[in-house]
Amino acid sequence: MSAVQQQQFDASRAEAFGGRMVGIVNDASLALMISLGHRTGALEAMAGLDWASIDMIADASGLHARYVREWLGAMVTGGVVEFDPETQRYHLPAEHAAVITSHAGSHNLAVPMQFIPVMGSVETLLVDAFRHGGGVPYSEFERFHPVMADFSDQTVLAGLENSIIPAVPGLHERLQSGIDCVDIGCGSGHAAIRMAELYPNSRFTGYDFEERAVNAARELARSRGISNVSFEVRDVAAMDETERFDLVTAFDVIHDQADPAGVLANVRRMLRSGGVFLMQDIKACSHLHDNIDHMVGTFLYTVSTTHCMTVSLANGGAGLGTCWGRELAEQMIGEAGFSGLETKELAHDPFNYYYIMHV
Ligand SMILES: C[S@@+](CC[C@H](N)C(=O)[O-])C[C@H]1O[C@@H](n2cnc3c(N)ncnc32)[C@H](O)[C@@H]1O
Q1: How far apart are CA 307 and CA 220, in angstroms?
Q2: For a Cys staple, 251 with which of 164, 255, 280, 355, CB 3.0–4.6 Å?
Q3: pLDDT score at 7
Q4: From ligand 1's centre to the CA of 219, what distance in Å?
Q5: Which pLDDT score is estimated for 163?
Q6: Cα(187) to centroid of ligand 1, in Å?
Q7: Pairing state of beta strands 89-91 and 245-251?
Q8: 186 CA to centre of ligand 1 in angstroms
Q9: Nearest 10 degrees: CA dihedral of 97, 101, 105, 110?
Q10: How far apart are alpha carbons 223 and 243 in whole angstroms?
């Protein structure tokens, strides 16, 4: 007899769970369609229309009507868009537009929805890694960097000036007077470029080991005509610089390192006396039982399995995972020899902690 057969079987529990699974098939499909609606501009177009026909929506978004019709089928059955069968017109309610279009400002939930197809895109490689070990490297994710940049525009850029920089006492004044800064794991460079724009007397560098991301960052800086920022393809695990910077930032970077302890030690070494390390990392606890009621716990462990943990394992790394958590982060920061650690929660960014520490 199997373990399942030996348990007392609660038929109503099985029925309820089956119902939930059916709902998940629908909701998971909807996540993909919301991502598509975001990327194609269909959602944005609908936010600008009243009750509209398929052709009106297709015209407004510049999309093929046949695709728009089928997409609308999912959006209507999924309860996102309203449909009037008599007039054959569709409508995105203002209350929904306020959550999944630009009307949501920096809380647009269609933006993180794009991670669902990004994560699904490496499923076959992940199955292989589950069976044989190792991991899926960054290079296998076709759209990770643009989606990440979109997401961190909401968590980092949106709060940089009024929330993140003011969270570090005296940093604004030091940046105004002119200091040397590096953003490690800078991705597409949006944060470094924005800081360079805000503080023309300071000098900014961005390091990332993905050439695609560095090229995008360089192109953006060039197109904006910003000259006090530069970007280098660098593995931050191999950084060997001593007392070169006054500020190091790492936005959502440390937990997916192959050698997180080594990177923290490198950061400490590259800071000048009085220097600051500002590390943004995922708001979670180090223990599963403390994350059970986490608002986006399932999402975080899924991102971890399909990206953050596996990219680290792909480099023979520690595989800390997205939910390495505050307890382990603070322990590793202490072990790296930083002092004066303050861990802050900032209102604009419900997804992350901000660890502020000194040399
Ligand atoms: C989760 S993304 C965050 C990107 C960016 N900081 C942001 O907030 O949008 C992590 C970034 O770190 C980079 N990265 C990871 N490990 C690295 C390493 N050892 N050296 C340099 N860059 C690394 C990745 O290429 C990726 O761009």
Answers
A1: 25
A2: 280
A3: 77
A4: 18
A5: 97
A6: 5
A7: unpaired
A8: 6
A9: 120
A10: 31
Residues of the chain above pLDDT 70, percent: 98
- Ligand 1 mutation pick, 253, 255, 307, max ligand atoms within 8 A of CB: 253
Residues 47-98: tens digit of each pLDDT? 999 999 999 999 999 999 999 999 999 999 999 999 999 999 999 999 999 9
Mutation pick for ligand 1 pocket among 111, 209, 255, 312 (CB with most ligand atoms within 8 Å): 209
Range 120-358: architecture per CATH: 3-Layer(aba) Sandwich (3.40)
The mean pLDDT value for 308-328 works out to 97
Can you tell me the distance from the alpha carbon of 346 to that of 352, in angstroms, rounded to the nearest whole number? 8
Domain ranges in the chain with CATH number 3.40.50.150: 120-358
- Indicate whether residue 314 lines ligand 1 (CB < 6 A): no
* Residue range 269-289, pLDDT digits in tens: 999 999 999 999 999 999 999
Residue range(s) of every CATH 1.10.10.10 domain in the chain: 3-102
Query: What is the per-residue pLDDT across 231-279, written as a single tens digit (0 to 9) for each?
Result: 999 999 999 999 999 999 999 999 999 999 999 999 999 999 999 999 9
325 phi-psi bin (left φ>0, alpha ψ -120 to 50, beta other): left
CATH number of 3-102: 1.10.10.10
Chain Cα centroid distance, residue 185: 13
Gap from CA of 188 to ligand 1 centroid (Å)? 9
